[in-house]
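Section 3.1: Structural characterization of target chains.
Under the original work plan, the team committed to producing a structural model for every single-chain target entering the pipeline before any wet-lab resources were allocated. The record below documents one such target. The sequence was received from the expression subgroup and is listed exactly as submitted; it comprises 417 residues.
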Amino acid sequence: MPSKATAPAIERRDHLTHRGNCKHTRYGWLRLTPAFSVHLIRDLVEALPVGASVLDPFCGTGTTALVCADEGVYCETSDINPFLLWLASAKTAHYSAAEIEEARTAAARVSRELSTGNGHAPWLPPLFQIEKWWDPPILRELGRTRAFIEDESKTISSRGLNLLKISFCRSMIELANVSFGHQSMSFKQPDGHGQMELVLSTNQTELVARKWREATDSIIKAAQSSLKASPRCVHCDARNLTSGLQRDFFDCVITSPPYPNRMSYIRELRPYMYWLGYLEDARKAGELDWEAIGGTWGCATSNLSKWEPPEREIPFSGFSSILNRISKSSSLLSRYVHKYFCDMTLHVRELSHVVKPGGSIHYIVGNSKFYDVLLPVEQIFASMFEEVGFTQVKSTVIRKRTSKRELFEYDVTGRKP
């Protein structure tokens, strides 16, 4: 049986969360609340031998790939979400002086167009109830900004254009009526206090232009940083890694998969994906979330209600009992947990084929709680790793999470013999 980690008194260690990912570097270009720590990954990468290859099969915002690029370590990262792969590719790209200069010049042109109040009619994405996200004057100016960027795409390089798009996403989300104070993004309460800057501003055009300038200055400056390696970003389902990755190739896997907590990445990513054209309607959003592991957005929930588990059981003693206890409060959540670990079982089997003999794995996971039922995620992952032949499997507490007192983050490790 895998060794069980206890839950000692341990501090939150905010530097091991997204809070440690500095906004004014490539790591902080776009924020997702679930992003994991640069410092944690760097410690793991720096301990690798020279010439090692790293895999992150759950790309996220590309943090593992960027750390590896900084440290000169070869890395491949994969994901099923094309937007996340685009972001990871943009964050880890080598930008030439010419590309930096054309992005800076184009950003200045957009800023001038915004400040004049003239130019294009706004382009707005088909995001449902978009007026909840931005007040009408702000939305109009964001739409004009996006239209100006589209004009620049006709003459600028793809890498230069990527810097403009990331700058737009940064300024767009900072102007949105949303809060990142909780585990997931939420709308601010309309109490008259949330966005004081917007309330007090008499010139919404200049406010958007200023946010745009601040974003482009920060992002273009960070893009000048030099990287020592070039990661490879692969569009690939984590349950079928061998379709896009070489077998017996990777020395180390460093990743943080989606947690089984019903947090939808599509829900968090909606504003970015709609504005950049990766989503066109809610149906497509739900379908993409259903394809991902742990997704429950839109039609993914109705699909889940009809899902039937395969005959093969999850290799963890007591798993059926956990499902039954959750089912007493919600049969849908019980089904959600079951499907999550069925998908992860498929992933772990594929993982065993792409890690080379002697290779190590590091899975940063968090346990969960459904009603009064604690889900020992780290122990279940350890059991799955052992079932496919990984040895020296153990879980180590990293930090106390900010939510319920029983919830911790763990590093589940093992080695392929």
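The chain has a mean pLDDT of 89.
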